[in-house]
Amino acid sequence: MKQQTIKKVVLVFLLIPMMIFSQEFQGKAYYQTKTNVDLKLEDSHMSEEQMAMMQEMLKKQFEKSFILSFNKEASIYKEEEQLDKPQSGNSGIKVMMIGGSSPNEKFYKNTKNETYAREQNLFGKQFLIKDKLKSFDWKLENETKMIGKYLCFKATAKREVTSMEFSSVGDNKDSSEEMKEEKKEQIITAWYTSDIPVNHGPEIYWGLPGLIMELNVDKTQYVCNKIVLNTKDKIEIIEPKKGKEITQEKFNELMEKKMKEMQLNRGRQGKKDGNSFSIQIGG
After folding, report:
1. Comparing C-alpha atoms, which of 131, 141, 142, 139 is closest to residue 158?
2. What distance in Å separates the CA atoms of residue 94 and residue 272, rounded to the nearest whole number?
3. What does pTM read for this prediction?
4. Residue 212: predicted pLDDT
5. What are the residues facing 264 on neighbouring strands?
6. Higher per-residue confidence, 104 vs 86
7. What is d(CA 109, CA 76) in angstroms, rounded to the nearest whole number?
8. Cα–Cα distance measured from residue 19 to residue 26, given in angstroms and rounded to the nearest whole number
9. What distance in Å separates the CA atoms of residue 282 and residue 163, rounded to the nearest whole number?
10. Whole-angstrom distance, CA of residue 178 vs CA of residue 169
């Protein structure tokens, strides 16, 4: 009896640190993102110099740094503040991203409750998108690789997405407006590490048995280049509250409506604007 009692006491003392670790485990993951954009403008009156400038401007639009702050149950993902922001210049070319993130927007996920809240700005109006997290049907692969000091495992998933592209091409004499909507199957490749036992990842991605360190979604790549774990100061992960509350479905409908309105307005003014180009990458 005494031996059994001693074993129980030892087991309790072994479990206490694990329970504390589970309750207090926290960290920050720093991601760099980039997207390859194939720029094709048929019958464009742009010069080669303007085309090269457009390509560079689009490239900079997609090269951003983000911070994912997390604990065992929740995370918040937001763009890292940059002191030097690229200037678009005065080239006569207009580049406008619709539905993209801004430095003040936050993406909160609670993987325990499987809910999320996302601050999103649409044409100057602030929205708060609140909805259920969508699960990914992850397939755990046998491949591994090192990302920094972490051993990472490969996982893949597929999903159907609707991509909307709004474009305007032309000059003062000839301009055209077009918006395309296309449904396609999207391939997602993730690399996660079980050394960091949370099921978080950048943006909407989650659900793997470890932190997602690298992610490839079509032509967009997310790469984690820095990890900070268990800092002395508690990391605050607070669900966003700002903006008009709306579901993801309703927000998507509103964004599509606004894009069609913009297409119509630009069609009326297109001959005054000169060369312009707008692109939307869905996901």
Report:
1. 139
2. 13
3. 0.74
4. 98
5. none
6. 104
7. 6
8. 14
9. 4
10. 9
